[in-house]
Amino acid sequence: MSGKHFALPALVLLLAACGTTHENSGQGASTSAAACKGAAGKYTIGVSQANVAEPYRKQMDDDIARAAKQYPQFTVSFADAQQDNAKQVADVENFLTQRIDLLIISPNEATPLTAVVKKAYDKGIPVLVLDRKVDGDAYTQWIGADNVDIGRQAGQYLADKVLPQGGKIAEIRGLAGSTPAKERQDGFAKGIEGRGIDIVTTVDGDWLREKGQQQADAVFKAHPEIQAVYSQNDPMAEGAYLAAKAAGLDQKIKFLGIDGLPIPSGGIKAVEAGRLAATFVYPTGGREAVASAKSILVDCAKPAKTQMLATELVTQANAAEVYAKGNR
Amino acid sequence: MTTAEFIPTRRAAVVDTLFRFQSLFGLVLVLAAAVVFSPSHDGDLVFLSSENLFNVVRAIAEIGIIAIGMTFVILVGGIDLSVGAVLGLAAVGSAVLLVNDGFGVLPAVLVVLAAGLVFGLLQGVASAVFGIQAFIVTLAGLQVARGLARIWSGGQGVAIAYGDGPGEAPVAFSLLGERTFNGLVPIPAVIFAVVAVAAIVFLRTSAFARHVYAIGGNEKAARLSGVAVTRVKVLVYGLSGLLAALAGIIHAGQLNQGSPNDGSGYELDAIAAVVIGGTALSGGRGSVSGTVAGALLLGVLNNILALNSVDPNVQLLIKGLVIVVAAGLQRLRPTP
After folding, report:
1. How many CA atoms lie within 13 A of A286 on its CB side?
2. At what angle do helices B187-205 and B50-75 cross, to 10 degrees?
3. CA A183 to CA B258: how far, in whole Å?
4. What pTM does this model have?
5. What count of CB pairs under 8 Å joins A to B?
6. How far is B120 from chain A (nearest CA, A)?
7. How far is A182 from chain B (nearest CA, A)?
8. B50–A115: do the CB atoms touch at under 8 Å?
9. Residue ranges of A 109-148 with Cβ closer than 8 A to chain B
10. Which residue in the set A5, A77, A94 is minimally distant from B21, CB to CB?
11. B-chain residues near A96 (CB < 8 A)
12. Does this complex have an ipTM over 0.85?
């Protein structure tokens, strides 16, 4: 058994509990006016990302970094919550102690991040919320796309162009319990309503290529009559394509994805190469966020509360063009 | 004893003491580094600001509480991979009971704690009575707990709103959601400190604790000398489940939500805290105080890397290296 060396940790806890307290100093939402120091100012922007391991979110960070390079006044620091709400709360709190001038956050989930986003906003720090929302309205601007609408467009495209006579399809969902998985499912169901399209099976692919492949292996064994696969993101669609290829069904089945990232491993290239029939761009909002940051901090403007981004249908006809646009 | 023998013995004793306090020295080292590398605002070190120190202790409270249960399990030579999932299950349970089922705070907390305890005890029975390896039992337990959490929550995060009406949780529970109490004391850190002190005292004074160390040191010998090995092991897993459930309740309060995906990967952070704290994975040697120091070390390390805006990818490398170094130092420690 060990000695009596528990004194110091206890002391640290105690110290932490008794330190000088000057919390909640800048109360009151005196937002953008105080933050704006014009073109001559220097600004630190904190970017709190939910999970950089997801290609979409990596792309968002990259878009922010690239767009911020245009403005020498901006220093951007990135934090990665690794898909953990608690870690993301801590990340934002660390940004607050660093006294950032503006917060860009893409929340892992809405409710758990609401309180800390409000805390930042109440301190007078402009907050740009990307992709997923927070509850209430204690933020400066939300930038994102409508997952329900994208799901609906995917459903309509399938009904109009891929299976106009109706038919049997499989759906591969993202992570069960996540908001976009539900929204993309609900929207899609609306899009195919009354069009004679039968979702034979719905499986969970957790947003992952390998999981999509495994699930599709089983789906194609059980339902070889399937004519199309609606996958809630491109990596799972690619996984399903590989499974179909292994089963000799890849010429017979059409694949739809969502996300359309302009990277070599992304959905646009997969559409261009003919593996996917179509994908729908889910914009990251990274560039738009930096543009908003510039207008808030440098131009002292007050941006609109909501900035809705439009999706774009990617087919073989326009894939090369969309890809180039995304890398400009 | 001659003088010639005495000197090396004393040197060995010094070395042994050094290693015993290793996690503490590590913590002091990291603390010193944190002070040195801390950014400053208007001459004040950011790291030492009260707000930042609150953040550090609050951030480690959940992992710390789990890690204390994990310490007991590892001391008997076991492992509990289910704790992160049990935390998620408990967070979901708290939210569902309070919001959907109209439970009061105390009944909800008691039901959730009991659920965690029973879950742990069942794993203990599977491992100790039926002799299935703890690694496998608790890996299966991880899956079962996640599945239960998904079913219980309907597959979605359950938001906790406060009020008196139906579908609202009693306002009393929001005390756990307060980031700090009276603007001074972070509630989760207080709970962690209470659990830690209780565990340290318990581990230093109780007969049960002596049995824990005896089993971890040599299970056969412990059995032969009359220790109720099976009973102790089952109880230890029960304790781990109980503490994971406690952490889950705090998690739900802190984040205003119980989500079936909560706490994933926390088991690894907890194991890291235990190992950095000097507890041997083979069992029989270690302490809760070391684990507390280990959890603090990880928390301070996380904090100072974040305050310096170190690239998140590089942060992973640094944290990995620290864990390996700490575990490596353990191997150098002379066996008594």
Report:
1. 24
2. 30
3. 20
4. 0.82
5. 173
6. 24
7. 9
8. no
9. 109, 111-112, 114-115, 119, 135
10. A5
11. 51
12. no
Local confidence pLDDT in tens for the 328 residues of chain A = 343 344 444 444 444 444 333 333 333 344 445 688 888 889 999 999 999 988 899 999 999 999 999 999 999 999 999 989 999 999 999 999 999 999 999 999 889 999 999 999 999 999 999 998 899 999 999 999 999 999 999 999 999 999 999 999 999 999 887 788 999 999 999 999 999 999 999 999 988 999 999 999 999 999 999 999 999 999 999 999 999 999 999 999 999 999 999 999 999 999 999 999 999 999 999 999 999 999 999 999 999 999 999 999 999 999 999 999 888 7
Is the minimum CB–CB distance between A25 and chain B shorter than 8 Å?
A: no
**A175 contact partners, CB below 8 Å, separation of at least 6:** A181, A204, A206, A207, B261
Looking up tokens 């492949």 gives: A213
How does A29-55 read in b/e, with b if 16+ C-beta sit within 10 Å? eebbeebbeeeeeebbbbbbbbbbebb
* Chain centroid offset of residue B6 CA: 40
Do residues B306 and A94 make contact, with C-beta atoms less than 8 angstroms apart?
Answer: yes
Query: Which of A9, A82, A135 faces B289 most closely, judged by CB atoms?
Result: A9
Q: What is the amino acid identity at position B73?
A: V
Show residues of chain A in contact with B288, CB under 8 Å.
6
Strands B40-41 and B44-45, how do they pair? Answer: antiparallel
Structure tokens at B6: 């005495």
For residues A40 and B281, give the distance between their C-alpha atoms in angstroms, rounded to a whole number: 56
